[in-house]
Fold:
Amino acid sequence: MQKIFLVIIFFVTILVFPAFAQEQLSGQEIILKTDKTAYYEGDVITITGSVSKVISGLDMSIQIFSEGTTSTNLVEIAQINVSEAGEFTKTFRATGPQWQSEGTIVIKASYGQKSNELNVKFFKQTGTSFTSDYEVIIPQGGTFDIEYTLKGGVLTLMELNQENLSLEINMNTDSDGALDIQIPRYGVDSLDENGFDEDFIVLIYTSGESYPIQTEYTEIETNAESRSVYIPIKDGDYKIQIIGTHVVPEFGTIAAIILAVAITSIIVLSAKTKLSIMPKL
Structure:
């Protein structure tokens, strides 16, 4: 009799517990976040989140997939604890033999029968390697090429602004990333009065902001012909302005100012010395 009772309890547990768990998970919500929207090789990916209903003893499953052009590969997997408050966190380092393909990374969190996922970007470090060319038009005629790599968005326009002595780059971004750009000195440069390199002023225009923000950049390589710089960007940035001390053609804003000053000086000198610029008859 006792054995029969135990068998009944066993089958009741098997039948009732899944239904009970399913009832507990009804209306379950999983919130999933990462600290950035794009990562480079070697970066630490920090994943945080929460669940609206906690099931005692049930772990959160985290899977990271790399979406290639022909297949989707599992890169990382982990089981992590969910706190009594329903919160969880996990870190991964984007390095190793599985982290070989640039592109979209899918992070999936599963808790019981519920799951949620989000996409981030993954980029390999490129150093001073540039992969694309853009033909910049010189306002008074001619063109010159600029080599660049934009990660995290698509470049839509690159042009000279002679009034502001700058190179302006318009783009559509969909994640955090970076611009590697090789600036020909012939086109745009920043030099002091002695001909030595000065820092560019780099301004970033961001959606939702009324004014541009000056940002730091890294000068990767400098030689007699060009200056290669690395500029980090954020999701929502739509324009970069690189300001120097001159742009091509040389007879631009600075030359016009010098000419105006020279003409003014001649006028002042002529007035003081009563020098006539017209020949006497």
Summary: Residues 9-14, 251-256, 266-281 have pLDDT under 50 and may be disordered. The longest strand covers residues 143-161.
